[in-house]
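Final report, results section. Input specification for complex C-07:
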Amino acid sequence: MSKNMEPVDQREALQSALASRERPPKASPVSASLTFGGRSLLKIKYVPEQLFDITAFPIIFLLMFTYMFGGAIAGSTAEYLQFVLPGVLVLTVVMITMYTGVELNNDITKGVFDRFRTLPIWRPSVLVGALLVDLVRYTAASAIMITLGLILGFRPEGGVIGVLLGVAILLVFSFSLSWIWTTLGIIMRSEKSLMGASMMVLFPLTFISNVFVDPQTMPGWLQPIVEINPVSMLVVAVRGFMEGSAAMADVGWVLLVSAVLVAIFAPLTMYLYYRK
Amino acid sequence: MEQQTYAIEAEGLVKTFGETRAVDGADLTVPKGTVYGVLGPNGAGKTTTIRMLATLLQPSAGRARVFGHDIVEEADQVRARISMTGQFASVDKDLSGMENLVMLGRLMGYTKPEAKKRAKELLYAFGLGEAAKKQVKTYSGGMQRRLDIAASIVVTPDVLFLDEPTTGLDPRSRNQVWDIVRMLVDAGTTVLLTTQYLEEADQLADRIAVIDQGKVIAEGTSGELKSSVGSGKLHVRLFHPETRELAKQVLGRKLGTVVELASDPSALSTWVNDVNRAAHAIGELEREGIAVSDFSLGQPSLDEVFLTLTGRTAEAAETTENEETEAQG
Ligand SMILES: Nc1ncnc2c1ncn2[C@@H]1O[C@H](COP(=O)(O)OP(=O)(O)O)[C@@H](O)[C@H]1O
Ligand SMILES: [Mg+2]
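Structure output:
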């Protein structure tokens, strides 16, 4: 008999809890992904500071680039704002995607991931759930920047629909790009090396682009490099939607690149995740 | 339901990490509905073995089946029937106990209300009702461990893997964990647990595999392991320490064994193979006028078993390993 002084009814509760051999039907992929998304949201509830990147970055970046470069590049900040906002929006959100990998890298070393990996669930749901919540974060960052832009005098000709479509294609691309960070997040041993590797990818990707200036003003040898950069393609598409002049081809390129990124990095991430 | 006799069958499991052969050809056969103890010092390969069986690591060689399902080829079927509580917390310490269990309930396929109901039931049963809404990182070690086990039985598994379930727990929490394990087995779950504590394996496990340096060096019931060492040890305590030399000669003569002197100046002990001869030897002490204050014929402890099997004590093996780990880290 037990030496512990648990009340009798608690022992009974334990017995009846253990006796239940009920087996619910397997969770659907959507439900499992949403549950993991819920987990990420709960984490934000406990550590609201992690919202810093999506609130502060959009504000700092937009103010900084508009007022620093506006006079020099476009002659006036108001005019430059029309040109630069879609670009800075892309730059900011693409930068923020990096935190997906950092989060995963922090998270994956925790014991709870061992438990997740022994559950009979749709395998990618752990990551898909986290990425879905990241989409919410990217949307919030976009909303903050566009609101600030409107206050400062941004007047998109594409109207509400154009802005929404612009944000939508940005989210599609960001979701796809995030799979690179999840891959790196699993490979890299430390947060520091992960940050380093991510920066190596992100800096050329965001700065050797058309975010700040029209590629026509660049030397001839640089133009093809800038134009082939997926971030430039994305900026062209987002600008197109917001200015009400989106071309099918530009949008098509972005969707193609996104599909390729997911096709390569999602299976790679899953492979590494279950092999680790 | 299938009619397998064995919950787990592993043949020649090997796992290498670079040069290290963490598991080096382990064979395990775990009968259904029993507790199987994997006993070994730190670094013996316990965690690596359990992680392979729980589909977390792929074996470098060998194969294993859980309820007839191959752990590599049919990992999903295996996962549907097992749960694992890792050596270090396998719950989310940033969330509350309630949030952890509801999340797992949802992942196991319960609807939200069902998941909440099951979470409440388990938290109460595991004595965590009051801490349900607190973040797990504020829990004591014993509470975390109980939550971890609760998390493993949100849906009662057919096989539960417990990696060192009581390491670092106070005696009260340890007894609670033991009780839970016993009740789980009564309810029909097969439990495979690893431990460094000989007493734990002795208390809980129906069968024990002793592993050292990745190899199973002995296997059997605790009784079988003990009898492989000898039938037991006779401990004698005398009223007068000054009679000990004489007692040693008498016992040695009667039993034909080596008599050891204990650190207690009035105690001595020896291995015996035959209970009757031991009884005669005690009688002979009386006849020689040596007053015996008490005597006992104990089964050998698993400590002694380990010493006999490996030539070193479990504690010694453990200390060397700890020093190595410290040097590395
Ligand atoms: N991921 C790993 N990489 C390299 N060596 C490892 C790894 N995991 C375990 N080992 C080594 O394998 C051996 C067995 O480890 P482990 O299974 O954790 O032992 P135990 O759980 O019995 O203490 C140890 O020597 C350990 O250092
Ligand atoms: Mg271990």
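The CA atoms of residues 33 and 186 of chain B lie 8 Å apart. Residues B 46-47, 87, 163-164 surround magnesium ion (ligand 2) (CB under 6 Å). This concludes the modelling results for the funded period.
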